[in-house]
UniProtKB/TrEMBL annotation:
GO biological process: phosphorelay signal transduction system; regulation of DNA-templated transcription
Family: Belongs to the AfsR/DnrI/RedD regulatory family.
PANTHER family tied to this protein: TRANSCRIPTIONAL ACTIVATOR DOMAIN, TRANSCRIPTIONAL REGULATOR REDD-RELATED
InterPro entries: AfsR-DnrI-RedD_regulator, BTAD, CheY-like_superfamily, OmpR/PhoB-type_DNA-bd, Sig_transdc_resp-reg_C-effctor, Sig_transdc_resp-reg_receiver, TPR-like_helical_dom_sf, WH-like_DNA-bd_sf
Protein name stated in the entry: Response regulator
Subcellular location field: Cytoplasm
Cellular component aspect of the GO annotation: cytoplasm
Response regulatory domain location: 3-117
Length: 373
C-alpha cells in the first residue's frame, strides 16, 4: 500500500481529488490538509510515500513545500496538482515526479499512479539494499553471502560457531555451554582458547561486511543480537507460524514453506548439536505435507498424490501412517490410486527388506481389489 498525503487550500478541490484517488486501491490517503502550517506541524508524526499538492497555497507555495519535503525526505514522491501550467519546469527541477493540470482526467491520473508505483518499487529495493547485506542459507548447505558473494570463514569452527548463533539469536549462551558443544573432546583450557580464537575471527569477518558489535559478551554469557539479515530459516519460521495459526491454510502458503525447506536443515553440514533442531523442523515439514494432502484430496487429485508421494518418500516403512493415507484415499473415492500406492509399497518392502505387508494392510488391499473390479 502506498501512503499518500494531500494538500490544497480549497476543501472542495481536496475532497474531489480524494474521491478520484479512491479508484486506485494501491493508494491509501492517510491525511489531507488545507493548511501548510498544520501540515508542517504534523510532519514529524506522519509517514507517507507520496504527496499531492497544489502549487498556489497561502502560507507557502507548493514549490516551497515540495522543496522542504525533498530535502528532509528525498524518498517521498511529489505530485503537483494545479491549474497553472507555467510552474512545470520549476516543479521538475526541485524533484517533482509529475505535474497534473486541473481538471485531471482518469486516464491522466492512471499514468501518474503508474509512475508513483514504479518510483515506490525502486525506493523499496534501494531501502532493502541498504538495510540488508547478509544473506544466510541454512537449508541444504549452510552458507553465508554478502552482496551475493560467498563469505569465507577463517576456520570451519568459526563457520560452525556462526551457524550456532544463527539458530539461537537473541538468547544468552553461557561460555562453557559453547565450549561443550563445539569442543567436547578437548580439555577446558584448550577449548576455551579455541572459543576465543573462533570468536575473534567471527567478529572480524562480521565487522568487515558491516555488522559491528552484534556479538555481545556479559558475565560469561554471549548473545548474538540478530541484526537485519535475510535468512531462509527465519523466513520458514515466520511462514510456518502463519500456517500453524490457520485452520485452513492456503496451498500457496504450504508450497512457500516447502520450497524454503528443500531437503532439510544443514543437510551437508555434520553439526551434531543441530539434531534436535533438525527433528523439530522435520516434524514441521511432515505437518505441511499432511495438511497439503488433506486440503487437496477432494479438490486436486494430482497435487494430493504429489504430497502423498513426498510423505512416503520421507517415511517409507511407516505402516500405521500408510494405512491412514490409504483410508483417506478410499474415502475420497480414489480406489485406483490407493491400490497403486499399496502395490508400490509392497514391492519396495520386498526388495528392500524382504518382508511382506502387515495383516491389516493386506486386509485393506483385499478391499481395494473389490473396489477396483
Amino acid at each position: 500500500m502506498i501512503r499518500a498525503v494531500l494538500i490544497d487550500n480549497e476543501p472542495l478541490a481536496l475532497h474531489y481529488f480524494q474521491n478520484k484517488l479512491h479508484a486506485f486501491q494501491q493508494i491509501q490517503v492517510i491525511q489531507t490538509f488545507t493548511s501548510v502550517e498544520k501540515f508542517l506541524n504534523e510532519l514529524p508524526n506522519i509517514e507517507f510515500d507520496v504527496m499531492f499538492l497544489e502549487i498556489k497555497l497561502q502560507e507557502l507555495s507548493g514549490l516551497e513545500v515540495a522543496d522542504i519535503i525533498k530535502t528532509e525526505r528525498p524518498q517521498v514522491s511529489v505530485i503537483f496538482i494545479t491549474s497553472y501550467h507555467e510552474f512545470a519546469l520549476q516543479a521538475y527541477e526541485i524533484g517533482g515526479l509529475d505535474y497534473l493540470l486541473k481538471p485531471i482526467s482518469h486516464t491522466r491520473l492512471e499514468k501518474s499512479i503508474a509512475r508513483i508505483e514504479h518510483e515506490f518499487s525502486i525506493q523499496q529495493m534501494l531501502q532493502q539494499a541498504t538495510q540488508t547485506v547478509l544473506n544466510v542459507q541454512c537449508f541444504d548447505q549452510f552458507a553465508v553471502y554478502s552482496n551475493n558473494s560467498l563469505v569465507a570463514f577463517k576456520t570451519e569452527k568459526t563457520k560452525e560457531l556462526f551457524a550456532y548463533f544463527i539458530l539461537h539469536p537473541n538468547i544468552p549462551i553461557h561460555r562453557d555451554n559453547l565450549i561443550d558443544i563445539l569442543w567436547p573432546d578437548l580439555d577446558y583450557v584448550r577449548a576455551k582458547s579455541n572459543l576465543h580464537t573462533a570468536l575473534s575471527y567471527l567478529r572480524k569477518t562480521l565487522n568487515t561486511i558491516g555488522y559491528d558489535n552484534c556479538i555481545v559478551f556479559s558475565n560469561k554469557y554471549y548473545v548474538f543480537e540478530k541484526p537485519n539479515i535475510v535468512c531462509d530459516l527465519y523466513d520458514f519460521q515466520k511462514l510456518h507460524e502463519e500456517f500453524s495459526r490457520l485452520e485452513f491454510p492456503s496451498i500457496s502458503l504450504i508450497h512457500q514453506c516447502l520450497s524454503i525447506y528443500k531437503n532439510g536443515l544443514f543437510v551437508f553440514d555434520d553439526y551434531e548439536w543441530s539434531t534436535a533442531y533438525k527433528d523439530r523442523l522435520t516434524k514441521s515439514y511432515i505437518e505441511l505435507l499432511e495438511k497439503g494432502f488433506q486440503l487437496t484430496i477432494f479438490s486436486d487429485t494430482e497435487k494430493a498424490i504429489e504430497f502423498l508421494h513426498a510423505l512416503l518418500d520421507y517415511d517409507p516403512y511407516n505402516e500405521q501412517k500408510l494405512e491412514h493415507y490409504l483410508y483417506t484415499l478410499i474415502q475420497a473415492g480414489l480406489h485406483e490410486q490407493a491400490h497403486k500406492i499399496f502395490q508400490a509399497y509392497k514391492q519396495k518392502l520386498k526388495e528392500d527388506l524382504a518382508l511382506t505387508p502387515s495383516p491389516s494392510l493386506l486386509e485393506i488391499s483385499k478391499k481395494l481389489i473389490v473396489y477396483n473390479k
